[in-house]
Amino acid sequence: MQRMFIGGVAALLMAGGGLLVWQTMANQPSLIPAPPPPASISDKLPVAGPDAPPFGLAPPTPPEAPKASREEMRFNRYDRNKDELISRLEMMGSRTKAFKALDSDGNNLLTFEEWAAATGQRFASADGNKDLLLTRKEFARTRPKPVPRPGCRC
Predict the structure, then answer these.
(1) Cβ atoms of residues 83 and 89 within 8 Å
(2) Which range of residues forms the domain containing residue 77?
(3) Structure confidence by residue, pLDDT tens digits, 117-127
(4) Confidence (pTM)
(5) Contacting residues for 37 by C-beta, under 8 A, at least 6 apart
C-alpha cells in the first residue's frame, strides 16, 4: 500500500513539473522573427512625370532563325556532336552499308554535300516522268527494300 502511495505522489510531482516547464516555455519570446508588415502596392510602382508619353517604345523583335530544310534536319539527326560531319559511329553500327554508299570520297566522314547529292540522286531515280514531283507510286519507290528475316532462331 505504501508503494502505491509513493508512486501516486511521484506521478503528481512529475505532472506538476511538466506543467511548470510547459508554461515557462510558452511565456518565453519566440526565436522566429515576425514577418514585416505588407507594403502597399502604390509604394512599389514608379510614377511617370507630367510630360511622359502615354505609351513606351515597343520591345525589339528577336531575329528569326532560318528554317532548316528537311534534308538538313535529317542530317542534323545523325550529326550527334554537331561538328557538321557525320562519322561512322554517329551513323550507327547497323547502317554501315548505307554510310559507305553515301561517303563518296571514302574518308569516313559524311559532309552535307555528300548527303544531299546522294538523296538528290535517289529522288531523281524515283521521279519516273521527270516533272520534279513525286506521286504516291513514285514516292513508294524511295522506300528501302525489306530485308528478309529468317523463319526461326537457329
Answers:
(1) no
(2) 70-140
(3) 877 777 788 78
(4) 0.32
(5) none
